[in-house]
Amino acid sequence: MQNKFFSFELLKEDKKTHARAGIFHTPHGSIETPIFMPVGTHSAVKMLTKHHLEETGAQIILSNSFHLFLHPGNKLIKEFGGLHKWMNWEKPILTDSGGFQVFSLARLNNINEDGVKFKEPKTGDEYYINPEISMEIQQDLAPDIAMAFDQCAPYPCSYEKAVKAMERTHRWLERCFKVHDKEDQALFPIVQGAFYDDLRIESAKVISSYEAAGYAIGGVSVGEGVELKNHITELTAPILPNNKPRYLMGVGTPIDLLNGVKFGIDMFDCVLSTRNARHGSFFTYEGKKNIKTKQFEKDNTPLDEKCDCYACQNHSKAYIRHLYRMGETNAQILLSIHNTRFLIKFMHDMRESILNENFENFYNMYSKIV
C-alpha cells in the first residue's frame, strides 16, 4: 500500500477551533503543517531560483501536470528521472491533475464520461486527458503527491449541473485508484459538489471511504465570495479523516490561510505570492500594500519590519519602488521573495501559536489586518 511511505503525526489541536499542527512524512522529507506551498506551474516558481526558494523556507512546492504534459512533455521529464531531478529540487513536490485547468478552458473543451478533449490555447492543437492518462502523466512526473482527476463545477451553477460534476468526479476517482500503482506516491482524492451543502457533505463522505494518505477540497476560489468559501471549507473539512492531512486547493491570501487553519486545513497552495508581486503588491502584517504608491517614494524602511526575507534585510521600500517604476525585473524578484517568505513565515508563526495553545489570540490579532 502507498501509505507505508506516508504518515501524518497530529501534534496538537486547538481546543476552541479546528486548528491543528502536525508533521506529514513523505519520501522526500517531512512537512510541518499547516503549510503554504508555492506554485511552480511550469516546474519553476516565477521569479524565484531554487536558492531563493530554499531561503524562503519552502518545504514543498506544487507543479502543474497539465502544463508539463503540454510542454515539455511528461515522457521527457521521466527520462530525466522525474520532477525532482528535472528541477534539482530535493524536497517534496505535489502535482495537480489537470482537472482545474480543464475547467478554466471551458470554451475550449468537450467533457464526456470517459474524459476531456481540449484545445491548447496557444496553438489550437487538440489533446485528450482522462483519469487513466492523468495518472500516467503524474506517475511519469513522479512527485510525492498526485491529485485525482476531477471535474470542477463553475460558479454559479445549477444543482443538476453540480450533481453531475460531483458524481462524475467520484466515478473518475475510482478509475484513478484502479490504475495508480506507484507505491512511493500518494494519491489525494478531491471533494467537489459546488456550493451546495448536501453535495459537499456527500462528496466528503465518498472520498473519505478511500484509503488515502491525504484528502483535498477543490472547487473553491472559482468566483464565489469569501463568506461562501469560508462556509464550504468550515462545513467540509471536519468530515474528512482527522488522522490525515487536509488540503484546500488554490487558496493563499493571508486571511484565507488564517480562516482555513481555523477550520482544520493543513495544506494550501496559491499563485498569489508571485502574481501579486509582479503587479507591485506585497503582504505585510498591516495588510496588503502596493509598492507603486507615492507614499513609499522616500520610505527607507523594509517592506515589513517583522519580515526576515532577503528583500527586507537588504533593501528599502523606496529602492524597490524605484526599481519597479524603472521596469527593473529585480523589483519583481524582490517582491516575490518577500511575498513567498511572508506567507511561509505567517504559517510557521500560526503553527507555533497552535503548539503553544495561543491560536485564538493569534487569530484575533491578525484576522482584521492581514
Structural overview:
Helices cover 41% and strands 18% of the residues. Helix 9 packs parallel to helix 10 (254-262), helix 13 (317-325) packs across helix 14 (329-355) and helix 14 (329-355) packs antiparallel against helix 15. A hairpin with a 6-residue loop joins strand 8 (116-119) and strand 9. The protein is globular and about 60 Å long. It has 370 residues and is an alpha/beta fold. 50% of the residues are buried. The chain has a 9-stranded parallel beta sheet with strand order 11-10-6-5-4-15-14-13-12.
Question: Which properties best describe this structure?
Answer:
globular; nine-stranded parallel sheet; 17 strands; 370 residues; three-stranded antiparallel sheet; alpha/beta
